[in-house]
Design brief:
The complex is a heterodimer of chains A (about 180) and B (about 240). Chain A has helices spanning about 5-20, 25-40, 40-50, 55-65, 70-80, 90-105, 120-135, 165-175; strands at about 105-115, 135-145, 150-155, 160-165. Chain A is an alpha+beta fold and about 180 residues long. In chain A, helix 1 packs across helix 6. The radius of gyration of chain A is 18 Å and the shape is globular. Chain A has a four-stranded mixed beta sheet with strand order 2-1-3-4. Chain A contains eight helices and four strands; from the N terminus they run ααααααβαβββα. Chain A folds into two domains: about 5-100, Peroxidase, domain 1; about 105-175. Chain B is mainly alpha-helical. Chain B has a domain at about 1-135. Chain B contains five helices and no strands. Chain B has helices spanning about 1-25, 30-45, 55-70, 80-215, 220-235. Classes of the chains: A alpha+beta (about 180), B mainly alpha (about 240). At the A-B interface, helix 7, strand 3 and helix 8 of A face helix 4 and helix 5 of B.
Chain lengths: ~180, ~240
């Protein structure tokens, strides 16, 4: 998919979200759905399969998000899948949260952790990241058991890795 | 032709010698006539009569008469007629021999001589040719021996070169094999060390992971997050 097309879809979704009162929630739901999609190859291939009728693919999206997201989010994701861009949901979602944060003069910080962070931890982490990078950030907490412990933060192309997984990997390489 | 001439000459000589020789003997004086004539002559000289003829001295005298009559001919001197006939036959035979025999014999002898000379020449020629062939064979044999010796020498030199080459190649292969074996040993040792180190690290890290996992409770997770926040904020 061309970058212009992804960019266009992202701007369209942001326009819809900005028209709604819960625009930030819509962005977050779309982002989280893309993360779920990345963890399931079967679901990803199903939503990307052009041989499956678009109505069927839309029905799958609606069934998955029923009660889990706003109607606007369901409608937007359903629209993306019906347009045959199921394989580009992750790129579109990343572009959506990036453009959304950019519109608010912030950067997106993807935080990988085994456990969820409390609001206090998130605030102090945001402050620490601003201190380290000089950027205000919007954090996206991603629960990932593979990090084993600690945190991994990715802001655009910059990665700050403090996970137990990486420490053990360094230990293994040290031998 | 020659044989017939020789046979005719011999036959003529036999006829002249024996056939005509018999006539010469028949022409001689007989023993009986000699006895009668001598007896008549002696009878008158001795005064023999029928009365005294039986006396012993007269008988002896008569015996001497007869002995003188039958005196033997000379063993050395032949009879004249034999000499004549024999000489004639000899002359005839000699003439025949000179006229026909000797030229024929001479011709045969000449032919024989020429044939022998020719044979000798041919024999000499054959001998010369055989000698030449022998010399050629000897030369060829010498050449063959020389060539064989050269071939043997060349083969020996080639064998020596081949042996040397094989020896050098074998030594090079042995050296290469030793070097390869040493390299293989080093590689195997390094691999074993690497494997051992990997296994050791796997064991150590695995043990560390198990220890860490066992101790990563909620409190530890919170402490790790706090440490991370503090570390990032201090940068």
């Amino acid at each position: 998919m061309s970058d212009e097309k992804i960019q266009g879809y992202a701007r369209a979704i942001l326009a819809v979200a900005s028209a709604e009162s819960n625009g930030a929630q819509i962005e977050d739901e779309i982002y989280r759905f893309s993360q779920v999609l990345q963890s399931s190859e079967e679901l990803k291939s199903t939503l990307s399969d052009a041989s499956i009728p678009s109505a069927r693919r839309q029905q799958i999206v609606e069934d998955l998000l029923d009660g889990q997201a706003t109607q606007t989010t369901v409608a937007l994701v359903s629209m993306i899948v019906a347009a045959g861009m199921g394989s580009d949901i992750k790129a579109i979602a990343d572009r959506v949260i990036g453009l959304g944060a950019e519109s608010r003069d912030k950067a997106v910080a993807e935080v990988y952790s085994v456990v969820d962070l409390s609001s206090d931890q998130q605030q102090r982490l945001a402050a620490a990241l601003k201190s380290a990078t000089g950027k205000d950030v919007e954090m996206k907490i991603i629960i990932d058991e593979s990090v084993m412990g600690g945190l991994l933060v990715q802001i655009e192309d910059e990665v700050i890795d403090g996970t137990v997984r990486t420490r053990l990997k360094q230990l293994r390489e040290a031998f | 032709m020659k044989k017939r001439l020789i046979f005719a000459s011999v036959l003529a000589g036999l006829i002249l010698t024996f056939g005509l020789g018999g006539n010469a003997m028949a022409a001689g004086e007989s023993l009986g006539k000699c006895s009668v004539d001598d007896y008549v002559e002696k009878y008158g000289e001795l005064g023999l009569t029928p009365e005294n003829i039986a006396q012993e001295e007269n008988i002896n005298a008569i015996g001497e008469i007869f002995d003188s009559c039958i005196e033997a001919p000379s063993p050395i001197i032949p009879e004249i007629n034999e000499v004549i006939w024999g000489g004639g036959a000899f002359v005839v035979l000699l003439a025949l021999m000179l006229w026909k025999g000797f030229p024929a014999v001479q011709k045969i002898m000449n032919e024989r001589s020429e044939k022998i000379a020719t044979d000798l020449d041919e024999a000499d020629k054959a001998k010369s040719e055989a000698q030449a062939v022998k010399s050629q064979y000897e030369a060829e044999l010498a050449d063959a021996k020389s060539a064989a010796a050269a071939v043997i020498e060349e083969a020996r030199q080639q064998a020596e070169v081949l042996r040397s080459d094989l020896q050098q190649r074998a030594e090079a292969e042995i050296a290469e094999m030793k070097e390869q074996a040493a390299a293989d040993i080093d590689t195997a040792r390094e691999r074993a060390m690497g494997d051992l180190q990997s296994e050791v690290s796997e064991i150590v890290v695995g043990a560390a992971e198990r220890v860490v996992e066992a101790n990563l409770d909620a409190e530890a997770q919170a402490r790790l997050i706090e440490n991370y926040i503090n570390q990032v904020g201090s940068n």
